[in-house]
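TICKET: design request
STATUS: open
ATTACHED STRUCTURE:
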């Protein structure tokens, strides 16, 4: 009687013999090896070609008009990208592969993405959008996106409606000191 180990060894050796005894199988094995090598080599090459960009210095806290926001669409000298969601401006530069020039969501760069996010449309208006005609479900979706952006990206300030004045942020102000207008979307402890 063969033991379990012997059975497994015999099975593997049979497969091995099967492969090496047929030139066609050998050729296929070679082709698979070559493709696998190419994939790994290409990935390593890409990593070498595109080193991680060092992060930009933090932008000072400030409220912005649509006009000001528009300057930060990733094509400026710094390449900084800002996106507004639910009246708040976020620095999404670290998500440049999404929002930067040529990225899948580049249409949101330097714009208010709220309506697009709520309606599954990668498009944004140049005009200020008060979002008042969104359905309750869409408004909820905008708030969820805002929470997601708050967790991932740096908050810069509020998006100003036409004629609205900027708040004065003192230089040393840190997150939380100006929070009275924030956190409408975040549920309290769950
Ligand atoms: C076929 C449709 C879509 C597919 C397959 C898709 C796929 C994805 C994937 C895989 C990610 C995560 C990428 C990562 O974290 O590495 C992502 C992120 C995202 N998607 Fe989509 N997406 C689709 C449509 C949309 C649409 C219609 C919108 C908005 C209108 C949208 C907005 C976003 C945003 C804002 C992010 C987050 C990027 C970030 O973390 O800042 N996507 N998508």
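STATUS: resolved
RESOLUTION: sequence designed for all positions
ATTACHED SEQUENCE:
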């Amino acid at each position: 009687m063969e033991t379990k180990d012997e059975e497994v060894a015999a099975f593997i050796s049979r497969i091995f013999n099967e492969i090496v005894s047929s030139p066609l199988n050998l050729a296929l094995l070679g082709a698979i090896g070559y493709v696998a090598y190419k994939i790994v080599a290409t990935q390593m090459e890409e990593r070498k070609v595109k080193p991680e960009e060092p992060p930009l210095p933090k932008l000072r806290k400030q409220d912005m008009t649509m006009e000001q926001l528009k300057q930060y669409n990733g094509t400026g000298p710094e390449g900084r990208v800002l996106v507004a969601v639910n009246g708040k401006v976020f620095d999404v530069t670290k998500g440049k592969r999404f929002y930067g020039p040529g990225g899948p969501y580049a249409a949101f760069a330097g714009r208010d993405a709220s309506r697009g996010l709520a309606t599954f449309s990668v498009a944004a208006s140049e005009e200020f959008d008060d979002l008042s005609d969104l359905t309750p479900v869409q408004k909820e979706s905008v708030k969820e996106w805002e929470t997601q952006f708050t967790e991932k990206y740096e908050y810069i300030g509020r998006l100003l409606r036409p004629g609205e004045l900027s708040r004065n942020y003192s230089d040393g102000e840190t997150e939380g000191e100006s929070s009275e207008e924030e956190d409408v979307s975040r549920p309290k402890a769950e």
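CLOSING REMARK: The CA atoms of residues 89 and 157 lie 5 Å apart. The chain has two domains: 4-49, 66-181.
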